[in-house]
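Re-run with default settings, no changes from the original entry. Doing this only to confirm the output is reproducible before filing.
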Amino acid sequence: MKRLVLLRHGQSQWNKENRFTGWVDVPLSEKGVNEAREAGRVLKEKGFQFKIAYTSYLKRAIKTLWLALEEMDMMWLHVKKDWRLNEKHYGMLQGLNKAETAEKYGPEMVQLWRRSFDTPPQPVEADDKSNPKFDPQYAELTAEEIPLTESLKEVIERFVPYWEAEIAPALKEKEEVLVSAHGNSLRALVMHLKNMSREDILGFNIPTGIPYVFEFDDKMNLQKDYFLGDPEVIKKLMEQVANQAKGK
């Protein structure tokens, strides 16, 4: 049996403030730090022994991974970072409060920007200081690779090939792999792994700091998937994520 664990980073400071974050490199909140540590404790309690881990270029995912591995006494673990695991780029929405944006544009439009398959928000301007081309951590990316906005479709197009070329082969060989990433980058992978429809993924939400386990057989056929935790608590957390963009 192969086990893949997906871990959405703990609550970030902008999650706490209910703001669109995207590629803005925002730190964890105090609650997010506690969520990351708790995820590590749960994984240790369940007996996971990861052989490799993956994360994005964004510090909220990196810090979550560090804290979880610290709780597992596994900070020595080999970690690979890749920009393809980054959150969806939210374009001009980045930094805006979700509820206030829903008041201005309507909750249906904001929900479309947040969760639709192929409708991206308005892009940032090429000379906007938030353009990733001005960030040294993305210096190796080509102009075509750097997004100014994204829909889930574009996130799938950058993440799934990395899954197939890098993470899936590692999982097949090493048997237990941990991926610390973001709500939409993980939704992109979940949609691929579970062969979900556009309608199904629209209503699927991943709570922060809760390990999400996928079990595969030796031929990499998915057998089952489940969150580690109380189902009722997780259901409420997922509903909270879904309700973030409702108007005041």
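The mean pLDDT is 94. Strands lie at 2-8, 52-55, 79-81, 176-181, 212-216, 222-227.
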